[in-house]
Structure formats: C-alpha cells, structure tokens
Specification:
- This protein is an alpha/beta fold.
- Among the domains are: 84 residues, 3-Layer(aba) Sandwich (Rossmann fold); 123 residues, Rossmann fold.
- It has 10 helices and 12 strands.
- The strands form 3 sheets. Strands 1-2-12-9-8-6-7 form a 7-stranded mixed beta sheet. It has a 3-stranded parallel beta sheet with strand order 4-3-5, with helices on both faces.
- The longest helix is centred in the C-terminal third of the chain and has 26 residues.
C-alpha cells in the first residue's frame, strides 16, 4: 500500500498485477512441460487504433507469461456471421484455451450476441451470457476481468468489504453488473447507480466505497464522495494529448478520499494480468480433463 499524500492511500494495481503474472507464468511453464501449452486467441474486427494498442499489449504480456497468443484480425468490414464462424472454430480448437472478442465491432455486430458463440469454458473475459448468468447465480465462472480486478486491488490493499456500503456507478455487463455480484458475494451492501439515478451525489456521498465505471471523464468530483471513502476508478478515457483520465476527478476527490486508485496504473494492469491467469486456469482444467478421460 503506497501513500500519495499524508492522508490518502494510492491503491496501485502494479503490485497485485505483478504477483498474478508471476503465478501465471509458473503455471504456464508447468503446463507446457506437461504437453499443454496455454493458448489464447483474440478476435479483432476493427481499425480502432486504441483497440489495436490494447491487443498488442495483451499479446506482449501473453508472450512474457509463456502463453501462445493468436490475434485473429478479421478486418473492420467483417460480417457478424464471419465473426461468429471464427469464434465457433476457435471454441472447437483444442489448442486454444482462452478466447477474447475485442471491441468495438463493425456496425451491425452485437458484442453480447456474438460472445455467446464462445465456449463457456474458454470465455476468459466472462463476456458470454452463460458466464454472466452463472456469475449472477453464484456458480463457478470466469468473471469479466475488469470487474474481478476491482476486488483484486481492494484485497491486495486489505480493504475489508464485509458489511461495507458500496455505490457502483455504471450498470454495464462488462463492469457494473458483474462487480455488483462479486461484491454481494463478499457480503457488501451494494447500490448500483446509472444515468437515470436521481441525485447521484446523494447516493455516492454516503457510501463507504465508490466504484466509478461509467466511461465519462472526471464525472465524479469531490461532492460525490464523503470524507474517508475508498474510491475505485475504473475509467480509462483518452485525452487530446494522448494521455488517460479516469471517471473520477482526482484533484477534488483525492483530498477527501482515504484511498484512491490511480489512472493509469490502477485497475488496468490487473485486468490484463487476470485475463492471462484465466487462460492458464482454463488450460489447466483442459489438461486435467484429458488426464481423467478414459482411454478409447
């Protein structure tokens, strides 16, 4: 736990991400020695440069972790049928253990619908309806990595969740809804806020913990949090000068918060690390299933 000022703790994601990466690489090396090198496939159908940068970063991180990474670039004109066909093919490929469908997608392609073509056991970013349904029901599933990263950072910095009031700002299936389920499983009392929430500040300013995941730069200012709150900023909004800012206005929230995640360097590094950990976990389960399968 690092301190950015005498009164505020910086909830850095660099340390938990490094620990996850170290454990992931050790598992990947073991699986490779045993004949099951973990394989990750990233399906891309966009010319968006920020998306391309993110995919390159995943590929580099996968290589460092000992994971074979295939980037299936279908081009920005790919039809939904072509994307679905590729996802189904990768789902049937025994050398592929994890599949990520990168967004944005071409016009007319629905991410939630296409994610259903990813085999449940290979859905390492928890994007498909089966994964999300199992998560909501409290059954084993890969949670969306960004949502899980929120809890990983809080756990690393020993932020207790049991009995705490948490305001989640954002209701997407990528962060808002799944992180609410994960928090409920840890005995937090959760309120999910969104664009129709009346007087948002009156809700967030009474919470012990605020999770901002709405995708609007610097939306949450100092008036939205109480003194001593823990604030998790999931936002990554590009600026004109090529930088990133979060959904939280750090200048006004920082002096009031007891702890705050930085942007960048907070949730982002842990998200990537968890995607790779999910991939080796899927590979480990596949290898275990092969070992336990009776001979034909």
């Amino acid at each position: 736990m690092t301190t950015g000022s005498p009164d505020r703790t910086v909830l850095s994601g660099k340390e938990p991400a490094a620990a996850i990466r170290q454990d992931t690489r050790a598992t990947a090396e073991r699986l490779t020695r045993q004949g099951t090198p973990p394989g990750l496939a990233v399906v891309v159908a966009t010319a968006d440069e920020s998306s391309a940068w993110y995919v390159r970063s995943i590929a580099r991180a996968a290589e460092k972790a000992g994971i074979v990474c295939e980037v299936a670039d279908l081009g920005p004109d790919a039809t939904p049928d072509r994307i679905r066909e590729r996802l189904l093919g990768l789902s049937a490929d025994p050398a592929v253990h994890g599949i990520i469908l990168q967004t944005p997608l071409p016009e007319g392609a629905n991410a939630a619908d296409l994610a259903g073509a990813i085999a449940f056991e290979k859905d390492v970013d928890g994007a498909g309806p089966v994964s999300l349904g199992r998560l909501a029901a409290g059954l084993p599933a890969f949670a969306p990595a960004t949502a899980e990263a929120v809890l990983a950072v809080l756990d690393h910095h020993r932020i207790d969740l049991s009995g705490r009031s948490v305001a989640v700002v954002g209701r997407s299936t990528v962060v808002g809804k799944p992180v609410a389920h994960l928090l409920l499983d840890r005995d937090a009392t959760v309120t999910v806020c969104h664009s129709r929430t009346k007087d948002l500040a009156s809700v967030t300013s009474t919470a012990d913990i605020v999770v901002a995941a709405v995708g609007r730069p610097r939306l949450l200012t100092g008036e939205y949090v109480r003194e001593g709150a823990v604030v998790v900023d999931v936002g990554t909004n590009p600026t004109e000068d090529g930088g990133l800012v979060g959904d939280v206005d750090a200048e006004t929230v920082g002096p009031k918060a007891a702890a705050l995640t930085p942007v960048p360097g907070g949730i982002g590094p842990v998200t990537t690390a968890l995607l790779l950990r999910h991939t080796v976990q899927a590979a480990d389960r596949a290898a275990e299933g092969s070992r336990n399968r009776p001979p034909e």
